[in-house]
Design brief:
Helix content: 25-40%
Bound molecules: S-adenosylmethionine
Radius of gyration: 17 Å
CATH topology of the largest domain: Rossmann fold
Strand content: 35-45%
Largest sheet: 7 strands, mixed
Oligomer: single chain
Strand order of the largest sheet: 4-3-2-5-6-12-11
Shape: globular
CATH superfamily of the largest domain: Vaccinia Virus protein VP39
Number of helices: 7
């Protein structure tokens, strides 16, 4: 069995596994919550294979996608060769531009297991936002990470770019640290790979506090798609921060 970095072997199969995710609806929600105007420049943190960048690219925005996985970025690059794809690991990143909108979709920032790393990321985002700009990030709450999948296991197989891929993922949750671990086994053309993915759940109060500590004066927590305030049963939450 080969050890693969998180989102390494997965990159091959990611788009098919995520085929049902309505990125367009999420982008509509984000744009509406951020004031409705089409942003000129957008930064997508943890952009993966570019699915979360696509709705902004399709609207003519200038998008920079940043991700720690070269394999995920390679897929993004192949789909959107003219967009800017940056290989970097949060929270330590530097970019020369400023943005009207910084987004992070599909719980990418839950991969930051230490709240100090999330604080650092928020702080850097605040420096990179243009005046009046918005930071919009999707998170799994602690409950969301705990309940990631019913039964704690997902299995499947598919054909991707001429490769036969089967996967078997086991999830378990450590309530003390609020951290979920996924042991993601893959077989690609008969070769076995194992990736270990970890996510820490962030609850709305903690997110609001970290965003305020990073210097944001307007902080709002909302649930997709209604835009209502989260409650104790919310498994996902969007943070909107500006000011
Ligand atoms: C679940 S995927 C989401 C990808 C994309 N945003 C989407 O919605 O399809 C999480 C992504 O976050 C990236 N990621 C995880 N930790 C990261 C870090 N510390 N810095 C940058 N990217 C990271 C992973 O490589 C992966 O591509």
């Amino acid at each position: 069995m080969l050890e693969s970095r998180p989102f390494g072997a997965l990159a091959l199969a990611y788009d098919q596994i995520m085929a049902e995710v309505d990125y367009e609806a999420w982008a509509e929600f984000v744009l509406a919550q951020a004031g409705g105007a089409r942003p000129g420049r957008v930064l997508d943190l943890g952009c993966g294979t570019g699915n979360s960048s696509a709705p902004f690219l399709q609207r003519g925005c200038q998008v920079t996608g940043l991700d720690a996985s070269a394999e995920m970025l390679r897929v993004a690059q192949s789909k959107w060769p003219r967009a800017e794809w940056v290989l970097a690991s949060l929270p330590h990143f530097q970019l020369p531009d400023r943005y009207q909108l910084i987004v992070s979709f599909f719980d990418a920032l839950n991969n930051l297991l230490d709240p100090a790393e999330l604080l650092e990321t928020f702080w850097r985002c605040r420096q990179l936002l243009l005046l009046g700009g918005t930071l919009a990030c999707d998170f799994n709450t602690r409950l969301g990470v705990c309940e990631l999948w019913e039964g704690g296991r997902i299995q499947g197989s598919l054909e991707a770019a001429g490769h036969r891929v089967s996967y078997d993922w086991l999830h378990h949750y450590d309530p003390a640290g609020g951290v979920g671990t996924v042991l993601a086994s893959f077989q690609v053309d008969g070769q076995d790979y194992l990736e270990v993915h970890r996510e820490r759940g962030y609850d709305p109060d903690e997110l609001a506090s970290l965003a305020a500590q990073a210097g944001f004066s307007q902080v709002d927590l909302r649930v997709f798609p209604d835009g209502t305030a989260p409650d104790l049963l919310s498994e996902r939450v969007w943070l909107f921060a500006g000011g």
